[in-house]
Amino acid sequence: MGAPRSFSLASAILLRGLGLVLAVAFVSLSLQIDSLISTEGILPLEDYLASYQEFAWSKYWAIPSLFWISCSDFSLYAVLCIGTLSSVTIFLGYYARTSLILACTCWLSLLAVGQGFLSYQWDVLLLECCFLAILSYPNTRKLALRETPSLNPFALLLFRLLLFRLMFSSGFVKLASGDLSWSSLEALKYHFLTQPLPTAFAPLFHQAPESLLIASCFAMFVIELLLPFCVFGPRLLQMISGICFLVFQLLIALTGNYTYFNFLSILLLLPLFDDALLSRLLRFSPSAQVSQAPSRFRDIAYQPLKLFVLVLGIG
């Protein structure tokens, strides 16, 4: 048997990348919040919370948000500001777990009251990634890039499970929708120009030969329905599936604007690539002195919670 695989480089990039995505999400929302859910917005936050007042204590479960304390415009910007600052500290590696908890709480509060504006797949995915990261990183004062502890086996399993669900469900819902354009493999004949925000490259892909579009649709189903099972396989299958997912996400980003969704999906691929591969690709190697987070009582206490999250993910 060979030496155990280390994922400290993947861990370092995942943490910083998640901080960057969170910062983009908070800043982007802050530029739109006035028109969306402020007192002068399309769907005012105060009116939305008022519609749940009759639910007594159950309203806090239905709408888990800090805005039950105050739903003023000042509170909206305060939460956005705290979330943005927490994202920056995550990116810099300071007090990772505390910063993640703050950012996750702020994003959950906004997500719960965002109504139709924050109901997209990537909005929930960002929250799920934050929650798994809280369970995966220690709360040391500073995690230097070269000294970020390797993701432990349980954290790797949780992130791979989330990646599996993301990819497999993406393919499954297309077939389960009953739309014949997917089952007949003809959907890409219309997709590139009918998606919400096509890029400048979308018309070029739309003009591809029909046979190539049909073959591409078939390849998409292979990537989304078959390759996800490889994330639980041996190292070679993990790398092959990871590379295919990477190319797939880059092509999606090239033809359509889905905000931070593709970058966040790429971050989820990192637990498929160990240090031996990433260090060769990036010409960067983590410190040999720190490969695993120190075992402390409060870290050990997180293990039952991780098991609970795993059961929820499987369910």
Describe this entry's structure for a reader:
This protein is mainly alpha-helical. Helix content is 64%, strand content 0%. It has helices at residues 8-30, 33-36, 45-50, 58-62, 73-92, 96-113, 121-136, 153-176, 180-183, 188-194, 202-206, 210-226, 235-255, 261-267, 275-282, 297-300, 303-314. The model is unreliable at 288-298 and 308-315 (pLDDT under 50).
Terminal CA distance: 33 Å
Tell me the radius of gyration.
21 Å
| Total DSSP E strands | 0
Order of helices and strands: HHHHHHHHHHHHHHHHH
Q: What class would the helix/strand composition place it in?
A: mainly alpha
Mean pLDDT: 86
* Low-confidence sequence ranges: 288-298, 308-315
Strand residue percentage: under 5%
Overall 3D shape: globular
Share of residues in helices: 55-70%
